[in-house]
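Records of this kind hold a single protein each, on a pair of labelled lines. With that in mind, the following record should read easily:
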Amino acid sequence: MTMRNRRLCFCFNSSVSLCLALCLGSVWLDLAPLSRVSAQTDLDPVPRVSAQTPAFACDVESNPTLMGFPFCNASLGVQDRVADLVKRLTLREKIGFMGNDSVPVSRLGIPRYVWWNEALHGITKTGPGGPQGAGTTRFTSIVPAATSFPQVILTAASFNTTLFKTIGKVVSTEARAMHNVGVAGLTFWAPNVNIFRDPRWGRGQETPGEDPLLSSKYGAGYVRGLQQRDDGDPDRLKVAACCKHYTAYDLEDWKGVDRFHFNAIVTQQDMEDTFQPSLKSCVVDGNAAGLMCSYNQVNGKPACADPDLLDRVVRGQWKLNGYIVTDCDAVDVLFSNQHYTKTAAEAAAASIRAGVDVDCGPFLGRHTQDAVTAGLLDEATIDKAVSNNFATLMRLGFFDGHPRKHPLYGKLGPADVCKPENQEFAIEAARQSIVLLKNAEGTLPLALSSIKSLAVIGPNANATKSMLGNYAGIPCKYVTPLQGLNAYAPTTYAPGCLNNASCTTVQLDDAKKLAASADATVLVMGVEGKKIEGEGRDRVGLLLPGKQALLVSEVANASKGPVILVIMSGGGVDIQFAKDNDKIKGILWVGYPGGAGGAAMADIIFGAYNPSGRLPITWYPQSYVEKVPMTNMNMRPDPATGYPGRTYRFYSGDTVYSFGDGLSYSKFTYHLDKAPKLVSVPSNRTCKSSDKGKSVYADKQTCRNLGFDIHLRVKNLGEMSGHHSVLLFSSPPSVHGSPRKQLLGFKKIFVRAHGETPVRFRVDVCKDLSVVDEFGIRMIALGKYVLRVGDLKYSLSVGV
């Protein structure tokens, strides 16, 4: 096995957290600088413009009279400033600030501001467009590109909370730099933490996967990275994140049922233990400054007009410190598509009374005045909404004068976007996340000494934009899979398919000829992130598109050397045929790895990096979706109807690959050092009994200081140092329809070859071990729990 020269990782002068995250992925391994490949940079032309002035209020230098307004006095508290501003506005002016494209109030020095910016996995070009400087993201000659991180579904596969937060920090720094020159705003509608419930969902790629805990950790970490300032001031924001989509949103367009008309029928149990936890964590643990309500109805009520969901839960229970925005045109949708109200004024009133503060669209701007006139809405409710909006902007410094004078971020500019260390970090994120699914006979990594010619074949083999996925910006550079592999070995190339990944026509002869003469063949197949799965587009099935499977099989049969199959996709793919094919020695899932993802993929294949990613989703067989309607929201199986349930937590049928699957070039073993055999739960409340067992309420009295530690040692038996994702699962007693298995915690560790690393998990009994009963109440099941880490199993009992 040929490896790069090893080197230590040192932190010199850049962000400590960024350096630490790089070290987590690069200790003892060369970081493979981006300059080693010939990257494509000319695929995304941008307009040439001159520098722009960003949007900001209280420009006291140009208008000294503004100094007399308390809302322009940065030394006052946010609430005092907001109260002063709101009392100076007319009703029409207040309504003008409830739309995504806010109306300027020139007499008070408040400019137009566009709330809609996106930063799902880097600054994106998705948004409303509009004039420069108003707060909307635009790539121009001033800032032509931004760092492109892997799509979220792949980043989640790293199981690295440090990585989640540090990506957010890099993205927010680039956002501030772009804002200072008028080509981005300060409010970003990310992350998407919906649960990837159905493998056909087109937007599942935008999420951290199917597990509530992983999704919660990702969302909270990414939000902290986006929002937390370098001075640690909890009352101020670097940029404002927005958790979406609230709630039970995971269908685009399936067999004539679309997201604008769909009524998600969700049990209280599924709501509390599957659909809500990641959104709650995003708001509560991440302290997000925004939340977006979704298009769909939930149990007959539009999510954006349900006061129980918005005012009672988000504001009352979760204590959102920020604003609630609708998905774009969602208020119009609940009126025009869902016919929830008889008049437009009623729709406006219903959404604002429920808790909406910002309408992504013109609907509230057109119909809120009519709602007030008709007596459906009072001005005090509007005051509450705009106060939330102004408070968010004040926490961002929007009312503190020119951004260039910001004490922390005022000096940032175009040179701080696409910095070399940021680009390298994006590749490192992909390296830590790529999942090795098959490695027959230890074929991988490929040895440079034995590969004199490498055939690279497939519709995604020379992919550029297809590597990005949904909600992508313009990358600093592209490194395609072909370019990345060519940096290691001489390559020959054939796309194998016409029509890109759709592959309605195959070109077998050229592909088979190359494979027959090459020392090894890499097939880069999969889905396309916008044309086959994406926003507004759910997948029809789980098989490789078009004739890709034929191409894979024919090339494998004709190949002279080992065949490595690379799958580029968001959702899982039924590739059982390839898993069973002895000619296909290796299988990798690379998600959508970002603009330079080809470099990371090549680093894994040739052993410059030891793979450590784990699947954040279940890969089902095609037969699963043939019998499960996408519109059925139930998570738990129903033996009476044959409904199999969803996700690894409740589904026990056949899989192609399972949640948490992922191989390494090393073998890791686990040794349990310390864990309790019995956990006693104090309770003064009556136990709840069923025919399957007993449980107690997970209330404050029961849960106070109730937890325990699990101490493990992880040993690397291999010859290669590397990262390892340690996943701790629990199988609770069978009561209240509890999950068959659920993730309790995870750690990303680094273990040297033949070395050993200690790992400690802190288990909060009420938070981690509890289950949700049929009424949506958290309970602690009494009885035997089986804890699992890899092939290690340990039993403990929980009793009163």
Summary: The CA atoms of residues 496 and 509 lie 9 Å apart. The first helix runs from residue 16 to 26. Confidence is low (pLDDT under 50) at residues 1-42. The domain at 666-799 is CATH 2.60.40.10 (Immunoglobulin-like).
